[in-house]
Design goal:
This protein has a single domain, classed as Alpha-Beta Plaits, CATH 3.30.70. The chain is built from seven helices and four strands; from the N terminus they run βααβααβααβα. The model has no long low-confidence stretch (mean pLDDT 97). By secondary structure, the chain is α+β, with helices and mostly antiparallel strands. The protein has a four-stranded antiparallel beta sheet with strand order 2-3-1-4. The site of adenosine-5'-triphosphate has 10 residues, from strand 4.
Amino acid sequence: LERTFSIIKPDATRRNLTGEINAVIENNGFAIVGQRRIHMSRAQAEGFYRDHKDQDFFQALVDYMVSEPVVVQVLEGEDAIKRYRALMGPTDATKAGPDTLRGRFALSMRENSVHGSDSPANAQREIGYFFSEVEIL
Ligand code: ATP
Ligand code: MG
């Protein structure tokens, strides 16, 4: 079993979609083994998205991520990293299938409802960024 890191983003928490998104996650064979609702600080959001700091959308992305609380999660399952990316759908939700989370819930390129780690190295970094070892036994 593999673990990945997920965020239910502000556009989704604001619309009370946490339960609906979690039902999709669990119905697709993932266990939610860690979960917390947090209001990220600007420093936390900037650190989390540090690989994007030279992108033109970086400042707007950080503003958005601190605009409302989010739900940070650790998901466990077979091939979890790749399978959760597939369940989310592409960043651009206009290209996402109707069965994907972004296809169903995204509002725009930025407000795309969920985040999921894109590699084992990033999954490890992102889980460690928000969770301590004893929270995800
Ligand atoms: P995430 O990392 O959140 O899972 P992703 O890997 O599909 O999403 P990235 O390229 O890592 O996409 O971008 C991180 C986030 O930045 C996106 O999820 C989206 O919220 C925002 N973003 C990406 N590209 C754009 C863009 N062109 N315009 C506005 N926002 C963008
Ligand atoms: Mg990404």
